[in-house]
Each structure stands twice: as C-alpha cells, then as structure tokens.
Write a sequence for this structure.
C-alpha cells in the first residue's frame, strides 16, 4: 500500500514537471508571427532607439521590411541611427521623433497620425544604480517620468490610431520580479511597466500586448562582456521579435534569462538578498 502511494505520488510529480517543462519551452519553439503586422506599408515606433536594445530592435524591424519611427532625445544620435538604417535597408522609410521623456511625459505625435503604425515598442528607460537615500529628488522624478509616465502617456495617445492588427511590446525587467537593492526606483517602475502591460493585454482584446521581462543585456549602459547569459543587444532584439505570437502576456524573450531567473527563485530569500546586494555593491564601487 505504501509502495503504491509513493509510486502514484512519483507519477504525479513527474507529470507536473513534464507539463511545466513543456509550458516553459513551447513559446521559444513556436515560429514568430511578426509578419502578421507587416501589412500596407506598416510602420513600427520604437522609443529609446538611439542605442542598446531600442536601436537593435529598430534595426531588426527595418531588416524585416517595416518602416520605422525612431525616438530619442539626442538629435545627432537620431540622425546617425536613421542613416545606418537606410544604408542597410534602402527601401525603409525612417521618421525621427526628438523628445526628452525624462523632462516631459507628453510627446507631440501629430506627425504620426496619418501613418499606418501597427507596432509600438515602449523601450526607453533609465536605471540609475545607487543608494536610495543618496538619489536626488530630480533623479527620482526623472526616472519615474521616463520609465513609467512617458510610455503610459504615449500609449494612451497612440493606441486609438494604431493600424489593425496591432502589436505592443513593453520592455520591463527581471527586477520587476526579483527587485534588487540599490535599484529601488528602477525596479518599481519596471514592476509598473509589467503590470501596465498585462492589464492592457487583458483589456485591449484587438491587440497583442506583451511584457518583455529583460535580464542582463550588453548595451551602452551595460558594458559587461557578451556571454551566453548576457547577449548582445542585436541577439536580444532577435529574441524579442522571435516570440511575437507566443500567446503569453509576459515572457522573458531570451530563454537563458528565464532559466536563470527560475533557478534563482528556488533559492532561499536570504541567500538571494545577500548575493544580489554583494553583486550590486561591487558594481557601485567599480563605478565610483
């Protein structure tokens, strides 16, 4: 009798593990449905497109046949990215939006209202590392404005004009799930991004809305070497567009990040806290 109970428990456990494994890998095996949104001279708007993930996503979308609208706060960088895109994709039409979202959450999008925009990528964000007590009031305000208020206002103003079918990709972070020390305001805004995205996914049934939980990526602000666990921005951009149509409201586009986060979450919380604090403190010292 005891043997049968243990045997039955083992079967149930193995079934649950197998189900969770299939659930984990399925989105990464499905073919991308990005092509669905490239109809009728479609445009894709990418915020924070002058560097890092935003630039890489804009470049990748252009290579897939989309016209692109690139947003940034530096006119010189915007021009450089526009020239790079058109040099590699001669048929691509590029529109530039110059606006500092950390200073004002309201951006004039009048010039976009006649364009067939079918994709919005809310990517722009900043993540100052430091002790919360040492942050200035201006740093806190600008971080929240750029990371949370700006994409909210842009989405609110643009959604009614998006060409159907439409796709929205909101770049969040693993810090929304595992908030580390020395990133309190950044982690809070990324938790907002994640909740904002999931809520819209449930509300806007005519759109595909996905929260992108992002791990460590080699970018202009993250100079750590490219590795298996830290992909280049170009590799990460391919992963982002590769999971379009996955059926998830939130996902880590780069599967090693999902595996890493899943394994970390199994550790005792005090151990996670100690390890993350030591790692971030080391980074603070190196930047100081």
């Amino acid at each position: 009798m005891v043997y049968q109970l243990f045997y039955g428990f083992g079967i149930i456990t193995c079934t649950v593990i197998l189900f969770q494994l299939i659930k984990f890998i399925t989105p990464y095996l499905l073919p991308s449905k990005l092509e669905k949104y490239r109809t009728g001279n479609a445009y894709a708007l990418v915020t924070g497109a002058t560097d890092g993930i935003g630039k890489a996503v804009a470049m990748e979308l252009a290579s897939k046949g989309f016209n692109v609208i690139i947003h940034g706060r530096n006119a010189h960088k915007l021009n450089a990215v526009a020239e790079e895109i058109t040099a590699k994709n001669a048929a691509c039409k590029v529109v530039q939006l110059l606006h500092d979202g950390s200073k004002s959450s309201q951006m004039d999008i009048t010039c976009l209202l006649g364009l067939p925009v079918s994709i919005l990528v809310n990517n722009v964000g900043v993540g100052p590392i430091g002790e919360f007590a040492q942050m200035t009031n201006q740093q806190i305000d600008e971080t929240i404005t750029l990371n949370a208020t700006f994409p909210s206002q842009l989405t609110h103003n643009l959604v009614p004009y998006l060409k159907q079918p439409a796709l929205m990709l909101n770049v969040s972070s693993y810090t929304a799930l595992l908030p580390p020390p020395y990133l309190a305001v950044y982690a809070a805004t990324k938790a907002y991004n994640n909740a904002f995205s999931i809520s819209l996914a449930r509300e806007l049934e005519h759109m595909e809305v996905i929260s992108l939980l992002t791990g460590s990526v080699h970018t202009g602000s993250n100079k750590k070497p490219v590795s298996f666990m830290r992909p280049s921005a170009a590799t990460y951009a391919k992963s982002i567009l590769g999971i379009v149509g996955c059926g998830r409201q939130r996902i880590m586009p780069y599967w090693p990040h999902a595996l890493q986060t899943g394994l970390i979450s199994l550790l005792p919380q005090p151990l996670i806290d100690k390890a993350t604090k030591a790692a971030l403190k080391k980074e603070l010292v190196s930047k100081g």
Observations:
- The first strand starts at residue 43 and ends at 46.
- The chain has one domain: 35-261.
- The chain has a mean pLDDT of 92.
- The radius of gyration is 20 Å.
